[in-house]
């Protein structure tokens, strides 16, 4: 997610240097997130509609955000957008406002697939704003089998033809899913089994790479790839005939969440902003611009169809921190797996 | 006299301060880190433990050391076989051609090594230039998968490090007194005998320093294995990087770095014993 944030840096430069019309009443609010998270029209539109001056403040990493928000004791900023795992800490430290859903007319537009996640199990604090979902993409011209889920990656037909991203928790996680376990399995013995299963995938792996993994697919070096969202979009932009698979075992995703700071200087404006973004037309503009999966059900029809997860997919899980022993075993699985790929 | 000494001290002092801060400091920090404990989420707990070193002895991680060693030996051997004759014959060339050869040898260094590696990807990939040429010549029917294999990594290593071998063999062959070879020939030695007894012996220091200059870096050049090998071989370097960044286990990374450093130091000491040449590696 941070990657995309820097990826659209150029566009964001424009956003940060925006000129704000002088308004009659001096209302203002501070939006705190990565650069390049909103198209300029949306930001301008909000200011025109409400007359509230919007100040777009950036952070580079989630950790910086937490630190600053924590120092300001939940003040200084009104609306914040950050990654799932950091929001868990924000909520624990009491830095997020419990949302008054009465004030959010568009609240029901949210796609329930992205709700009830670990960082906000009862949906009290956050409104999802875009999701990144690693997915399988393949070239139907080069692949003879039909790929429906992760388990098809183990098919011997795919020998030496898969390009994988290098996030070891995610790769261990999808292996867990094929075994019917949680992505965040904590039991070390069970994780060892995952490692054995993962080793069986080794003969099919053509390469492991974290950056521009889609290039391997586009250059014909690999015929199947497991890619991050930005890479899926880049691959489809180059070759629309590629097939995207929403694995039947369930998705692993990362969600960006929007929340209001607990001591926000201008809470009313903050609610207005969140509600503004929840409007389907506005949401669609935002997701089109960001290139992340649409978390607004009402916007599904309006947004680029590539950014909509089909209705057939009903479950998803987020990679979370696990105990140190589990983490170490996942890491060991990964090293053994990589060594076995050669 | 006294004043001069005092003046000299002031001249040297910045160097000592620099060394203390930027060499000794990080080194001590790394060694200390390698005995600490990794925190659950991120960061370090300063509790003394030997676990990080114990962990290196586990087969998975020990294997990465062996892999790195194997790759370094393989590439260094090939570099020797190619680089020695190259350097030798380069020294025997006439002056003008020697200069041109030197220029061609240095030319690739003007381009960043990562960019050169990506260039090799363009050449070697399935729809790449090499496959295209081979196919249009009718030599092959289906494109060959050159990339993401062990030979591709060795090739990348040889490509990146060969100039160091050539230059060090060249410099020792160039300094050699060729009249010694003539003398050997006059005294009845055959060409081969003269080469092995005179030329080779006198160029051994160049060969050895070339080996040091290629072997030690090749233990650490993991980005070649990552880019041309598709991350499929786990070298110590990439394991350290992964532990630092993704896994957030700094103490384990530090322990591996310490072991790596000890191993290279042993190699340099061994080399010094054999060659008695102390200047080359900069610690003489």
Give a structural overview:
The complex is a heterodimer of chains A (342) and B (284). With 342 residues, chain A is α/β, with parallel strands linked by helices. Chain A contains 12 helices and 12 strands. Chain A has helices at 2-7, 9-16, 40-50, 62-71, 84-92, 168-178, 188-199, 214-218, 229-238, 267-278, 280-290, 324-340, and strands at residues 28-33, 53-58, 79-83, 127-132, 135-138, 162-164, 205-208, 224-227, 243-245, 251-252, 254-260, 316-317. In chain A, the strands form 3 sheets. Chain A has a 5-stranded mixed β-sheet. In chain A, strand 1, helix 3 (40-50) and strand 2 form a beta-alpha-beta unit. In chain A, helix 6 (168-178) packs across helix 7 (188-199) and helix 7 runs parallel beside helix 12 (324-340). The longest helix of chain A is centred in the last third of the chain and has 17 residues, at 324-340. The radius of gyration of chain A is 21 Å and the shape is globular. Chain B has 284 residues and is an all-alpha fold. Chain B has one domain (48-275): MetI-like fold (Orthogonal Bundle). Chain B has a two-stranded antiparallel sheet. Chain A binds chain B through residues 160, 166-168, 205-209, 219-221, 321, 323-324, 327-328, 331-332, 335-336, 338-339, 341-342, and chain B through 38, 40-41, 58, 60-61, 63-64, 67, 125-128, 145, 147-148, 150, 226, 229-234, 239, 242-243, 246-247, 249.
Radius of gyration of chain B: 24 Å
Largest sheet, strands/sense/barrel of chain A: 5 strands, mixed
Number of helices of chain A: 12
Largest sheet of chain B: 2 strands, antiparallel
Shape of chain A: globular
Q: What structural class results from the helix and strand content of chain B?
A: mainly alpha
Strand content of chain A: 15-25%
How many E-type strands of chain B? 2
Supply Rg of chain A: 21 Å
Helicity level of chain A: 25-40%
Helix-strand string of chain B:
HEEHHHHHHHHHHH
Please give the share of residues in helix of chain B.
over 70%
Shape of chain B: globular
Low-confidence sequence ranges of chain B: 278-284
**What is the CATH topology classification name of the largest domain in chain A?**
D-Maltodextrin-Binding Protein, domain 2
Number of domains of chain A: 2
Distance between the amino and carboxyl termini of chain B: 28 Å
């Amino acid at each position: 997610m941070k990657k995309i944030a820097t990826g659209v840096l150029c566009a964001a430069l424009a956003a940060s240097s925006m000129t704000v019309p002088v308004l009659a009443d001096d209302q203002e609010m501070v939006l705190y997130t990565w650069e390049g998270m909103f198209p300029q029209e949306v930001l301008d539109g909000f200011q025109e509609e409400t007359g509230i001056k919007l100040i777009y403040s950036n952070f580079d990493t989630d950790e910086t955000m937490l630190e600053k928000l924590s120092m300001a004791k939940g003040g200084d900023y009104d609306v914040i957008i950050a990654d799932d795992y950091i929001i868990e800490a924000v909520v624990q430290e009491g830095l997020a406002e419990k949302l008054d859903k009465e004030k959010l007319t568009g609240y029901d537009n949210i796609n329930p697939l992205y709700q009830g996640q670990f960082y906000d199990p009862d949906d009290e604090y956050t409104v999802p704003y875009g999701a990144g979902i690693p997915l399988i993409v393949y070239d139907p011209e080069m692949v003879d089998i039909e790929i429906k889920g992760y388990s098809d990656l183990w098919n011997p037909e795919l020998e030496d033809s898969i390009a994988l991203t290098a996030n070891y928790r995610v790769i261990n996680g999808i292996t867990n899913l094929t075994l019917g376990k949680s992505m965040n399995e904590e039991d070390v013995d069970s994780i060892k089994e995952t490692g054995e299963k993962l080793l069986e995938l080794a003969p099919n792996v053509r390469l492991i790479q974290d950056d521009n993994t889609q290039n391997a697919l586009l250059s014909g070096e690999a015929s199947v790839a497991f890619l991050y969202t930005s890479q899926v979009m880049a691959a489809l932009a180059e070759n629309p005939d590629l097939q995207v698979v929403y694995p039947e075992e369930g998705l692993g995703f990362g969600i960006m969440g929007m929340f209001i700071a607990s001591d926000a200087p201008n809470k009313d404006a903050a609610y207005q902003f969140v509600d503004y973004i929840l409007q389907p037309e506005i949401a669609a503009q935002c997701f089109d611009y960001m290139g992340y999966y649409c978390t607004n059900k009402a916007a599904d029809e309006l947004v680029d169809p590539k950014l909509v997860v089909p209705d057939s997919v009903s479950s998803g899980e987020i990679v979370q921190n696990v105990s140190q022993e589990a983490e170490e075993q996942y890491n060991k699985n990964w090293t053994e797996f990589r060594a076995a790929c050669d | 006299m006294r004043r001069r000494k005092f003046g000299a001290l002031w001249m040297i002092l910045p160097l000592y301060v620099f060394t203390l801060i930027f060499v000794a400091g990080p080194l001590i920090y790394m060694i200390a880190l390698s005995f600490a404990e990794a925190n659950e989420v991120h960061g370090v707990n300063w509790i003394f433990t030997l676990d990080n070193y114990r962990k290196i002895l586990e087969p998975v991680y020990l294997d990465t050391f062996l892999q790195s060693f194997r790759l370094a030996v393989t590439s260094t051997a090939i570099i020797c076989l190619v680089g020695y004759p190259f350097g030798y014959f380069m020294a025997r060339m006439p002056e003008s051609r020697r200069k041109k050869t030197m220029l061609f040898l240095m030319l690739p260094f003007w381009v960043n090594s990562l960019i050169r590696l990506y260039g090799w990807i363009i050449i070697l990939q399935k729809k790449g230039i090499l496959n295209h040429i081979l196919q249009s010549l009718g030599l092959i029917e289906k494109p060959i998968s050159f990339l993401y294999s062990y030979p591709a990594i060795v090739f990348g290593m040889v490509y990146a490090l060969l100039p160091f071998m050539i230059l060090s063999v060249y410099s020792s062959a160039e300094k050699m007194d060729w009249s010694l070879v003539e003398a050997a020939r006059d005294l009845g030695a055959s060409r081969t005998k003269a080469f092995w007894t005179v030329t080779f012996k006198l160029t051994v220091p160049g060969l050895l320093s070339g080996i040091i200059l290629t072997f030690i870096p090749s233990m650490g050049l993991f980005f070649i294995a990552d880019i041309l090998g598709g991350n499929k071989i786990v070298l110590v370097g990439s394991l350290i990087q992964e532990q630092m960044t993704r896994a957030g286990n700094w103490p384990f990374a530090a322990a591996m770095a310490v072991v790596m450093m000890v191993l290279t130091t042993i190699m340099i000491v061994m080399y010094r014993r054999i060659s008695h040449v102390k200047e080359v590696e900069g610690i003489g």
